[in-house]
Write a structure and sequence with these properties.
2 copies of one chain form a homodimer. With about 325 residues, chain A is α/β, with parallel strands linked by helices. Chain A folds into 2 domains: about 1-125 and about 300-330, Medium-chain alcohol dehydrogenases, catalytic domain (Quinone Oxidoreductase, Chain A, domain 1, Alpha-Beta Complex), CATH 3.90.180; about 125-275, Rossmann fold (3-Layer(aba) Sandwich), CATH 3.40.50.720. The first copy, chain A, has 10 helices and 15 strands. The model of chain A has no long low-confidence stretch (mean pLDDT about 95). The interface of A and B includes residues 244 and 271 of A.
Chain lengths: ~325, ~325
């Protein structure tokens, strides 16, 4: 049995794409004691990947040149020498961009399929959903009735953030690029208002029109110019959840944010976080997400790019805003 | 008896100064029921004043053209028709830039001179000190042993912030402009390190040298370029207290802050506040400040500009960084 892999061959200075990776094949490494071999089904494609492979400073260990790209994924156990894992079990773990990785059992989790499907575990029960949950509820300190503005609203984290806010009885305004994404947010997710930033000549004015009494929580997935505009639309005591800055990924010069004066004048709290800090509370989040998933109040569009070899292309698509919903690569 | 006043005659677009004000004299307005007449002794000169008189949006009511400049001050009661105030009492209240204002008793507080001198009430027990106290302890969530970086460290709020952090067993690094201010901070306030931003070619590198393990709390009085540099020197879990942005006051174009990526990568919280939000806890803060003042652990250099007519000049000095310590105008 062979393990197909996609290796990092060059560090991108701008947007990552096919030119920075190379396909490779090797025999599957036989599992040692405590290890399992997994047949990968879905690989998560996330904005944070840019920081794992770039030339700049990174707050996590960087992927080394010549190594398979790091990624979280879902797959089925095909060989096991680890207690608690049987052949046929569905698991999630650090598959990387590999078709048949050999993984440590203690770094891999069994998936409970009575709770959700494989696709649910890749979407509304996955890490992007946990990110939205802790970002909005803990960092954003969301309260019912508040006005919530979400950028990157059609993306993996953004869609869930919008729906959590709707479930919590908030008024929700989504920002996305393009008519299709905006129609999806308005018609399928039933947001209260949608702003198409590609069609709006003055994004700050559009925000103020959509949120005439001001924004209580701005959930920021993009940074840059949209963040700067959102700072002008905040209400007294607002919270800005710094979840992502995808507009700045690979930018040769970072956008300079001018409107930070809002922090003092309006007692604003702006806070970054990493979902892994909330590891001890994943069960809580999944209980909440599962409850609302079963009740039909939570949906997650998976954007599947089929074929391991297309993973670099999928990553490039993420940064060009080509995906609607949680982006994954389908394998096998 | 006459009331000398300084009236706002023109809204500054840049730094405010003598050209925006005009001296005036009128007979003292006799106090109505519940009012007192005060002979002003000290008037506080604060960065926030810029936002009360500018053309831009302000989060507090603006001073009207032709009216006396708004200000907090300390003085002695010379006539009273308000219960609880006797002639000769020392009080603090909204004197504005006036020598003998007529004030409402319910907006004026008696000063307890057993707690501190008039100068103490203008300095280490005044509003600037309360700002430092709540900013550092509540917003900054200061913990003993942490590394604290303070900009505008020689200013009214900055000096107290530095000393509160020293009292709380923190390592304290002050940023100020010029050798005299830096010598004062190092030799008199005994800070652990001092950065003269006017003498440093690379302020971010200087911060990293002074804080090799990173900054836990950055108390920001200045905004702009120094804030941007400080964002590169933060430690995991750091807090940025957005207290002031004096470097941006009256700037024709606001500086664009590029390094907000630190928020996500290092789980940073950046928060603005207004001291008035903590009004219910002023007694707590004054108990703490008084305790350490009496023990000799807290000092506040008052920078006194004598003469009501020089108030506009004092305000301009504040924005050029001419003061060391809490800036007040001395009257009478």
């Amino acid at each position: 049995m062979n393990n197909h892999r996609i290796l990092l061959t060059e560090r991108p200075t701008g947007i990552p794409g096919p030119e920075h990776f190379q396909a490779d094949v090797e025999p599957v490494r036989p599992p040692g004691s405590g290890e399992i071999v997994v047949a990968t089904r879905y690989i998560s494609i996330d904005p944070a990947m840019r920081s794992w492979i770039g030339v700049g400073p990174s707050y996590v260990r960087q992927v080394e040149i010549g190594q398979p790209m790091r990624a979280g994924g879902i797959g089925q156990v095909v060989e096991s020498r680890a207690a608690g894992f049987a052949v046929g079990d569905w698991v999630q773990g650090r598959t990387g961009w590999q078709s048949h990785p050999t993984l440590r059992g203690d770094q891999t989790q069994n998936l409970d399929l009575s709770v959700g499907t494989i696709e649910d575990w890749a979407g509304p029960l996955g890490t992007s959903a946990l990110t939205a949950y802790f970002g909005l509820r803990d960092v954003g300190a969301l309260r019912p009735g508040e006005t919530v503005l979400v950028s990157g609203a059609a993306g993996g984290v953004g869609q869930i953030a919008c729906q959590i806010a709707l479930i919590e009885a908030c008024r929700v305004i989504g920002i996305a690029g393009g008519a299709d994404k905006c129609a999806y947010l308005r018609d399928r997710l039933k947001l209260d208002a949608v702003i198409d930033y590609k069609a709006e000549p003055d994004i700050a004015a559009a925000m103020r029109r959509a949120c005439p009494e001001g924004v209580d929580v701005y959930f920021d997935n993009v940074g840059g110019e949209i963040l700067d505009a959102a700072l002008t639309a905040l209400r007294m005591g607002a919270r800005v959840v710094s979840c992502g800055r995808i507009s700045q990924a690979g930018a040769t010069e970072q956008y300079g944010v001018k409107n930070l004066g809002a922090l003092g004048g309006k007692r604003v709290r702006m806070q970054g976080f990493l979902v892994f800090d909330y590891h001890d509370r994943y069960a809580e989040a999944r209980a909440w997400l599962t409850h609302h998933l079963r009740a039909g109040r939570l949906r997650q569009k998976l954007h599947v790019v089929e074929g391991l070899d297309r993973a670099p292309e999928a990553l490039a698509m993420l940064f060009s805003g080509g995906n609607t919903g949680k982006l994954v690569v389908g394998v096998g």
